[in-house]
Amino acid sequence: MSQRTEGKIAIVTGAASGVGKEDALLLAREGARVVLTDLNEEAGHALAREIGETALFVPHDIASEAGWQQVMARTEKQFGAPSVLVNNAAILLLGSVEDATLEQWQRVMRINADGYFLGCKYGVAAMKAGGGSIVNMSSVAALGGMGAFCAYSASKGAVAALTRAVAGHCKQSGYRIRCNSIHPDGILTPMTAAFLPGGATALPEEVGGAEPMQRMCHPRDVANLVLFLASDESRFINGAELRIDNAQTIMGVA
Ligand SMILES: NC(=O)c1ccc[n+]([C@@H]2O[C@H](COP(=O)([O-])OP(=O)(O)OC[C@H]3O[C@@H](n4cnc5c(N)ncnc54)[C@H](O)[C@@H]3O)[C@@H](O)[C@H]2O)c1
């Protein structure tokens, strides 16, 4: 059995659901010890139990600086210094520039932008001695902009620019820390299920059919890219924006 993240200590935010859950399962399967964080304590603890003694769940609000300090302290105590950080947790709120309120905009920015800034800040501090890989979940919304999701699109643009700034700073500082962003189109997760024809009850496997080039992106498709970026196989990929959208963006329909 291949062990592509053997010896890694990985933190995955938003690990109780969707993409984060698949990331955590795959990184653990490939040999990493994983720290799962989420607001959803019940599902987070359940996943950590499912993975076993190589997993730890820490309740966490990514927008809280004290929360990040606690995640880093508990990671260090349980497993040692982290070498992988997957900034994955985020929220999606519907609202065009005309419909969205300032309160909605600020709520999205607090989680999707402030939360990623704090993750990178504490991630770099924890990794600068030993090196590592930071993977930031952005979206095609950062590249094209989605009219119906104004604040979300802007927050994902902030994540993309933050990623480049972090990669550049780490390289200039001589740290062995890579930082890359991932830009998926629609993925079948609880975040998007509410907007799909079968609604929130539609299960990923049931929507879109089995034909790989026609169906929507599955969380596992994204987890495979996260695994690659977490592993040393991607050691020369740094400051990159990786689209995972089955050509939707270049067809101008994203
Ligand atoms: N689903 C898509 O179509 C899609 C497309 C492009 C990008 N993305 C990005 O992928 C990532 C994962 O999305 P998903 O579809 O798996 O979403 P999801 O809603 O299934 O899971 C998100 C998880 O984050 C947690 N979370 C939310 N706010 C949090 C906070 N403040 N602190 C800690 N945890 C918090 C939630 O409890 C949930 O478990 C997100 O960054 C999202 O923007 C998703």
Can you tell me about this structure?
By secondary structure, the chain is an alpha/beta fold. It has one domain: NAD(P)-binding Rossmann-like Domain (Rossmann fold, 3-Layer(aba) Sandwich). Helix content is 42%, strand content 15%. It has 8 helices and 7 strands; from the N terminus they run E-H-E-H-E-H-E-H-E-H-H-E-H-H-E. It is globular. Nicotinamide-adenine-dinucleotide binds next to helix 1, helix 4 and helix 7.
Question: Top keywords for this entry?
Answer:
254 residues, alpha/beta, Rossmann fold, seven-stranded parallel β-sheet, 8 helices, 42% helix, binds nicotinamide-adenine-dinucleotide
How are helices and strands ordered from N to C?
EHEHEHEHEHHEHHE
Q: Please tell me how large the radius of gyration is.
A: 17 Å
SSE-based structural type: alpha/beta
**Do you know the CATH architecture?**
3-Layer(aba) Sandwich
Query: Total strand count, please?
Result: 7
- List the total number of helices: 8
Rounded mean pLDDT is 94
Q: Note the beta-strand portion.
A: 5-15%
Write the CATH fold name: Rossmann fold
Going across the biggest sheet, name each strand in turn.
3-2-1-4-5-6-7
CA distance, first residue to last residue: 37 Å
Q: Class in CATH?
A: Alpha Beta
Q: Largest sheet, described in full?
A: 7 strands, parallel
Q: How much helix, percentage-wise, in residues?
A: 40-55%
The outline comes out as: globular
Ligand catalogue: nicotinamide-adenine-dinucleotide
Number of domains: 1
Low-confidence stretches: none
What would you give as the CATH superfamily? NAD(P)-binding Rossmann-like Domain
